[in-house]
Known about the structure:
Strand content of chain B: under 5%
Distance between the termini of chain B: 7 Å
Strand order of the largest sheet of chain D: 10-9-8-11-12-13
Number of strands of chain B: 0
Shape of chain D: elongated
Structural class of chain D: alpha/beta
Order of helices and strands of chain B: HHHHHHHHH
Largest sheet of chain B: none
Radius of gyration of chain B: 29 Å
Number of strands of chain D: 13
Radius of gyration of chain D: 34 Å
Oligomer: heterotetramer
Helix content of chain B: over 70%
Shape of chain B: extended
Largest sheet of chain D: 6 strands, parallel
Amino acid sequence: xxxxxxxxxxxxVVLTLGIFSFLWKDNxxxxxxxxxxxxxxxxxxxxxxxxxxxxxxxxxxLFGQGQLLFSIPLLLGLCYxxxxxxxxxxxxxxxxxxxxxxxxxxxIPAALQADVLRQVQGTFxxxxxxxxxxxxxxxxxxxxxxxxxxxxxxxxREHKGALKLASETGIIFLMVGFGASFGYTVMARMSLLIGxxxxxxxxxxxxxx
Amino acid sequence: MKRNIPLVVCLVMGVSMxxxxxxxxxxxxxxxxxxxxxxxxxxxxxxxxxxxxxxMYHSDKIQRKRQGWFYSVVTxxxxxxxxxxxxxxxxxxxxxxxxxxxxxxxxxxxxxMFAILAFYMASAAYRAxxxxxxxxxxxxxxxxxxxxxxxxxxxxxxFRLPALVLLTVGVAVGxxxxxxxxxxxxxxxxxxxxVLLGLAVRFLFAPRFGAxxxxxxxxxxxxxxxxxxxxxxxxxxxxxxxVILGIERGWLGGGKS
Amino acid sequence: xxxxxxxxxxxxxxxxxxxxxxxxxPLVRPLGLGVTSGPRAQVLFDVIDSLPSGKTVLxxxxxxxxxxxxxxxxxxxxxRHAFARDLKVLICGLWVTGPGLADRALSEIPPExxxxxxxxxxxxxxxxxxxxxxxxxxxxxxxxxxxxYQGHPLESLPMMNEVAKLRDIPIAVIFSAGDPGYRDWIxxxxxxxxxxxxAGITAVSAADAYPxxxxxQLTGLLAGMKxxxxxxxxxxxxxxxxxxxxxxxxxxSQSLAHxxxxxxxxxxxxxxxxxxxxxx
Amino acid sequence: MTALxxxxxxxxxxQPAAGFDPPPVPPLAAPVSLRAFDTPNDQxxxxxxxxxxxxxxxxxxxxxxxxxxxxxxxxxxxxPPDQAVFRDEETQDRRPYTYRVGAVSGxxxxxxxxxxxxxxxxxxxxxxRVNVLAAMVIFFALVVYFIETARRGKSLFVRRIxxxxxxxxxxxxxxxxxxxxxxVPGLAGIDAIATIASINILGEVAKKTAQYxxxxxxxxxxxxxYTVAREVVKEAYTKAGRPDAFKADSVFFITxxxxxxxxxxxxxMVREKPATNFFLGMFWAESLILAETGATTGAIQIAGTDSVxxxxxxxxxCDYTLIGEELYAASAYLSREPLLLGSLKGQDYGKxxxxxxxxxxxxxxxxxxxxxxRLFSRITDLFTTG
Lengths: 209, 257, 280, 386
């Protein structure tokens, strides 16, 4: 067991324990770490955005290579800051119009293609399901699952009679689906805790390899 | 004027990008590449805006000396220090930002914040995850099957015997309750359920938990998630259409028209 | 019944200590409970194993430090596999926290196989605007990343001559901890440019990937630390690497942790129903 | 490219060094049924060649020769023996080219007969995406039709979501106890559907808090959502006739970093001890941090998200959860906004069409197993897109 002598590792350990202290109760040390995190995270976003996006994508083409066309996205971007000037705060609507319009226009065909057409194609029952009786049964169960789960999210008619039976079957499939996600999430959370303990036990205390 | 022009911009951008999807002509591809580059620039500005409002919020808290203003000083100092170091000396490997601030401040804080989730999960498992309703108990049973199936300890355990025992006990309790309040239809349904599920467990499901978890994930779970993906996709397309056509104006906000 | 009432009022800090102890124990004293073998990890392994040497694998770093314990080991394992097979690795990312993680991988893994930056591995960095980045790379990678993360123009990197757009890439492995992530690569990269997409994802979103696996939109899947451990074993068993396997080392703790959670839920519910029946 | 070609031809020249004559090799067969056509659905400058290898053994490789009218022939590429298709990406549009493909084995090459002249050109419509266009047109028609009927005031029936009673009851509880309501509009940007739905519900909740003058706290993670939320709450207070009661700092921005935001909202809930927490919108891993801490403060918690990852937590830890699209239906039902109701009905009927297509399609596809109905097996191809 040889404790690390690197000041930076100790800094990381102190901050880790600072966040963990919130488990005991909300305390000034935790608040310090929380606010430090907020500041550093915002600063980091600014630097990476500048170095990776604003500088190479805007500054070089516009000022470096003189492509004046890039003054349009620059103006649109600057309009975001109009929000801090009450008199002209409505200017923010222009960059938002551009961003929302573009994103929606791109999203519609992509969503229809990948999430609707492709998933409908995957739901079809084809003669291949007759290969084996268990393949047949599972294919039937999946088909009933998709149909009944869709009917659970049907809002145009009161859930009575056949529709009630369908949506009750649907909720069963939905709960099994959420249960599966729940199971995987336990593994996810534990992995993160194990990761922190590996850091504390290996890099700090040197107890494990 | 202040509302109509943005709506027109949104309409033009939306329709043009939708049409562009169907037109492989070089002009359409050039238009598309140009607007894509513009979008990346404007999106970067939105990120910078977020920081602006953060600084406003904290500096306002300091000026007004509101409760806990001292911590806002920490945030502002941390932000300024990180921004200056990062913008000044770059963000690559070997810079202070990468080796000190990212690796030894941002990583431990971010990772620890996530790690305490495991503790919340444990305490929530004990105090919040209740089998209050039929649905919640079904969720927990499916979760148990998947959890056992994923972990080496559970993957090789036999599935069929414990499942049959649990099923029989559950149905017995159900029938006892149904008989007590004369719900004969309930007794019939439970009996039928017992036979069907018993056969499924015996023949359809795999012998060990590991393979059963994969079956649960690949069929019923897949069906449920597919229905959700379809529903969400239709919702996304409908809302995107309303934004483009100017029907959905939430983003414009109120204020002077 | 008093027993159950006190059981319900156990201070949650005791639960925290129990969990912490049971998770730390196997790290110090490994119990050797082994690792499961999953079909989904094998699919990705076979695809990369069958690629002719010299081809370029795209890796997208779409996660943050908080998800490193789950995603970093599997990313390292996939990179080791690619280098051992003399494949080129092109890295990009949709999360702003990606650069730091990619940098770390670049400093650790290529040297193990004597791989040169620019020759065998290139890191493009991060760009804002998710769908715009993927769609841009589909048409022409240089239009999105004129320079790589270090600032070298792409023309100066020999590896980039064979990779101009997404169609030149046989498989993209997306390490994603949420949105943006593999679904964006499918929705924009695959539908428009036929990009074959595989994913290494945090366990929390693993169950939701199955509709995309069933339609074939996803080619193989590494789900959470279990997926990482499976891939580490596959890479080690075929002699491609004998580096330390953090994911495998952590699987014992995973087993104990899962048992603890299940017991907590059972005990919690028993106590809850016992007290509720008395109208407590 | 040409360097690769030359080396290939060189290798082909090297004679086998063995002294004896090799056994008589069947004559090399030239490729047959060679077809050249303008590559469909592209931006031009590309011609596609397809051919069949001739009878007899497979050659070592195929060599592709292009001739532009008026200029000499030029060998442009070679492709491996198993590949019988090639896309020439270096053509100029509106210029006639003819092609020949030769099967190369050892030193000799058997050339196929040349193709008729063909010209490359860009297309104005990608025919492989006609099914996306059809889906788009049908679905747009549905949404626009229902929105128009809603606009004309015709009442559209939408069933009451059980979760909505819980929302109204929870706001009432906070008012009685005189404690604040914390409303988290999710962590996604304004372009996320769940965020827009959440903003709608926020408007309704804000109207109620304006009437009963109870405190409303709306912490934000996205800068744009922050600006929109602030406007919506201000508008709700003016609509409820209490513009003075609107406090500007009740809607505030914290940080764009996911976990710093979650920790800050936790701190807020522990300090303010709200009676009701709303978590409506798009969430990621921080959902459990919020729901668990909220539960420990004893508040009633209503959650709603279309993020399937987080729903298991909200279902088990919160008092009521709106699952996926129920969030959209709730925002439409609560606000009675004709436009929202219209688009919800459009989506409902969209689902009905999907169900009809899936059931009918499956029936026909299963029939296609019988030889008489073989035609139906092509139904799945209708859903593939280029």
